[in-house]
Write a structure and sequence with these properties.
single chain, alpha/beta, Pdz3 Domain, 2-enoyl-CoA Hydratase, Chain A, domain 1, 3 domains, six-stranded mixed sheet, four-stranded mixed sheet, 19 strands, about 20% strand, globular
Length: about 450
């Protein structure tokens, strides 16, 4: 379906007035007086050895990205719970909740917080406290995770094993396996259950970073996802259960890699029913490069393809790029009559929530997969001590927050993701390819 020029003009206007105020995704906070709003996602945190609750940790400034330095508040003088409560009382976006409900909620947890001495226990208590506040982009993050996600958003290379771990009911499954990255090259498949790392149960591995999900959104919709700590040329031995009671041993060596490099590596052409179906996976809508990559592929490698399958599973990204992405796809749709399918799942969020909404509103693409995350309120970041960053919403995004916050965008074709021990099977991708082929055939009639 073609998109009318006035619809695109309206989207551009919104982008100028609103989306340029964003940089949708993870870890762009807004310092006082800073004019660029940010829209974020994800989370993840390093579990440091337990310490007394009053023992603070030093924060090295070396190697920090620009995004990491953008902090809206610093509360580091009290316990972790007190610091988090103080930030929210001053900065949480919903004034009515902040004035009426938040003080009561804090009082319900205050006595337990005083009795909690170990840092690990204090973090768990804070996460429980945050789970009662109805908003996305709310949780505790480690500095290490903050660093990793900032690098991901910027599209920078850094030492990585090229995968993350998703915790479902206490078991850890391979997820976010980057195309062309170390884990894929080693033979790891999505939904492999990782039983051990270097002979240790995953939950005891020093490489396992802290959980990374929104506190309020339930685990079945936003399960904990964990980064793994890595340095250049580190290697790990992992024991993997690929299918029920079928185990393999893999060695994964860390290398400098990035989600943007994976996006480039993902480009391929599937042949189905005598037709050529282009495929590109955008893990993050990075600060720069995604519209250019999409345009380059459509005009180059994909120019003779019959349809495009754009995989937007993963996290969010740069809101300022949304109008450019929509415009590129609109032109491909109009000039080439190119059928477009977009893949989403329950963890597609922030900028991708907005993309899903705009694709559906304008009819540029058919949505295949699961409902999006419904995480459409901007995130800010505060230093709350103990090598911990509080991700929280300090302001409301005009239009899109009301439309999409805690309101997932529904797909046109619902397909549930494959799930544990599926040996790399990808039900959403296969359904997307089938839908693209159906659209091509329907167009030729």
């Amino acid at each position: 379906m073609r998109v009318r020029d006035n619809q695109i003009a309206a989207l551009r206007k919104t982008s100028i007035q609103v989306m340029m105020l964003l940089t949708l995704l993870v870890f762009l906070s807004i310092p006082d007086g800073f004019s660029d709003y940010t829209f974020q996602s994800l989370s993840q945190v390093h579990v440091a050895p337990s310490k007394g609750i009053n023992q603070q940790s030093s924060d090295s400034q070396r190697g920090r990205t620009r995004l990491e330095s953008m902090i809206v508040a610093r509360e580091t003088s009290g316990s972790l719970f007190d610091n988090v409560a103080s930030v929210l009382l001053k900065k949480y976006y919903d004034e009515r909740f902040r004035s009426n409900d938040l003080p009561k909620l804090i009082s319900q947890f205050a006595e337990r917080a005083k009795q909690t001495k170990e840092l690990r226990d204090q973090r768990e208590l804070v996460e429980e406290f945050l789970s009662h506040i109805p908003a996305s982009h709310l949780g505790l993050l480690s500095r290490q995770t903050h660093h990793y996600i900032a690098l991901d958003l910027e599209g920078q290379l850094y030492p990585t094993f090229g995968f993350q771990l998703m915790n479902i009911n206490g078991k850890f499954y391979a997820a976010f396996i980057l195309e062309g990255g170390p884990a894929q090259r080693a033979g790891l498949l999505t939904w492999d259950r990782v039983v051990s790392i270097d002979g240790q149960p995953v939950e005891r591995s020093p490489r396992l970073d802290w959980r990374s999900d929104d506190a309020y959104i339930k685990d079945d919709r936003d399960p904990p996802v964990h980064y793994l700590s890595a340095a250049k040329d580190d290697s790990i031995q992992i024991k993997v259960e690929r299918s029920k009671n079928k185990f393999v041993q893999l060695t994964v060596r860390a290398d400098d890699y990035s989600a943007f490099a994976a996006a480039k590596a993902s480009a391929q052409i599937f042949q189905r029913g005598g037709r050529n179906l282009a495929y590109l996976h955008i893990w993050y809508v990075h600060l720069t490069g995604v519209p250019e990559l999409l345009k380059q592929k459509i005009e180059g490698e994909f120019k003779d393809c019959d349809a495009l399958v754009l995989d937007l599973r993963g996290r969010g990204g740069n809101g300022a790029a949304i109008s450019k992405i929509v415009d590129i796809l609109r032109k491909a749709n109009e000039s080439k009559h190119l059928p477009i399918v977009a893949l989403f799942d329950r963890q597609s969020r922030s900028a991708k929530d907005v993309l899903a909404y705009e694709f559906k509103r304008t009819g540029i693409a058919r949505l295949v997969g699961e409902p999006t995350a419904g995480a459409a309120i901007p995130a800010s970041f505060a230093d709350v001590g103990y090598d911990t960053i509080l991700m929280f919403p300090s302001f409301k995004l005009p239009r899109y927050t009301d439309l999409l916050e805690l309101k997932p965008v529904q797909p046109d074709v619902y397909v549930e993701r494959s799930g544990p021990l599926s040996a790399g099977a990808d039900t959403i991708l296969e359904a997307g390819l089938a839908e693209a082929l159906r659209m091509v055939k329907a167009q030729s009639k």
